[in-house]
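Folded chain entry
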Amino acid sequence: MATDPGRQAERRQVWIGSVCAALAALGFAAKAILIKKAYQLAPVDSTTVLALRVLVSLPAFLVMAWLAKGEKLSGRDWAILVWLGANGYYLASFFDFWGLQYITAALERVILFTYPGIVLLLNAVWFGKKVKPVEFAALGLAWLGIGFVFYTDLMHSEQPAGVMKGALLVLGSAVTYAIYLVGSAKIVGRIGSARLTGIVVSVAAGFISMHFLLTHPVQDLVQPPPIYGVALALAVFSTVLPIFLTSEALRRIGANRMAIVGSVGPVLTIWLGYWILGEPVTGVQLAGTGLVLLGVGLVSRG
């Protein structure tokens, strides 16, 4: 019996899109592992690692912004894009890299993965969108799950105050990224996702570079070769490629399927942290991660 060509093409699209989504999730999951590895390899701080990452990845985003076609941007458009860059990629990255100096990669990824719920709350506060009872339940599950993973970090840490500080910093990263998503939703349809991403990441790179130059001597960019290797891996495998793969997955399979496949991210981070960094994996931690995934899944379904 002959296979319907249209059906075969659709399955191919779903398969390719799902592979892209899975690879993007792996790249994003590896980000925290690479950052923690840099902290293990040399006495380097979060601002220096972040600066090296953007210096390596910036050319790709400049090319992305230059190649993307679109209407001429107004002064108001540029103001919005600068604001988005400051929130979505400068502050979010800064808080994230800083927080990882104090907490495990697993806890970082679980906290960051709550951003859909934060987006839900921001839309309710700013735009008056009603929050459904199932969405409140989903948020409760997600925060209960964070509590479980947070408990694991506290039990295995010699500095509980540092764990608290790191968790709050990463939560700040999730909030600022959620603000970026809410703000970009109002402009992305007109500007285009590739152009938007290229411009706001380039703007954020400017903020990050200024932050580094105001707080560090330029000589701090001179690091041992392994740190440059980590910076290159961060830029290529956990920044540029995942962003391109995410765009391709969204085009082929849509946001809902993308969210389902992407939910493997926190689990990948836990096992990569165990395998590469020697971070603990406990039943409580896995249960907490499962609750977060369940909560995020309910929020994503609406």
Summary: The longest helix spans residues 225-262.
